Amino acid sequence: MSSHHRRHREVADPQRGDSEFSEPDLAGKDEPSVFSLEDDEIWLHNHGVVALTLRLARAVGMKEEELIHVRRGAFLHDIGMVGIPDEIIFKPGQLTEQEWGIVRRHPAFARDLLSTTGALTPALDIPYCHHEKWDGTGYPRGLKGEQIPLAARVFAVVDVWCALRTARPHRAAWSIEEAREYIFHHAGTHFDPRIVEVFLTMVSEQGS
Ligand SMILES: [Fe+2]
To answer: What is the pLDDT of residue 170?
Structure first.
């Protein structure tokens, strides 16, 4: 396991019962920079998330012309972590409530970053809204239900799924059955229930 993995700050851990599992992978690098993606693990991780997000977006009926923005948005989902100070990213042990507050600014940083280039503005739904929750308890805006852009509702399921299915320094990867159970259990609270249904069907038919 490479060194950046051990120092890697997780945005959340399922066993702590807080259900934000997004991975600040781009920020776990020695010299965080917006588009340097030479790290193989980051590259592979992001490709897995992107591929699964696109499959699910198609399965819920998103149009082909929307998928380019879904793909870009999924790939850049945690780009806002470049705005979080290294002392927090690399802090060993638990973050304080105040530090979590700073980490939770990463969607707004992403909005600020990506909205400066016209080309990426249509890809903002995922980086800006991937921590919103169906029941309105997410952040940064506490959007509820279909107020959350469809791309972000799709991505949220995939992001949590991929986080659970990946081993961490302090825990093994969850089994497919455990991860399915978790996603199913959070339909209607964290996730759009219709998307969960499509996702679980897709996973059981095609594996993941
Ligand atoms: Fe995130």
So the answer is: 84
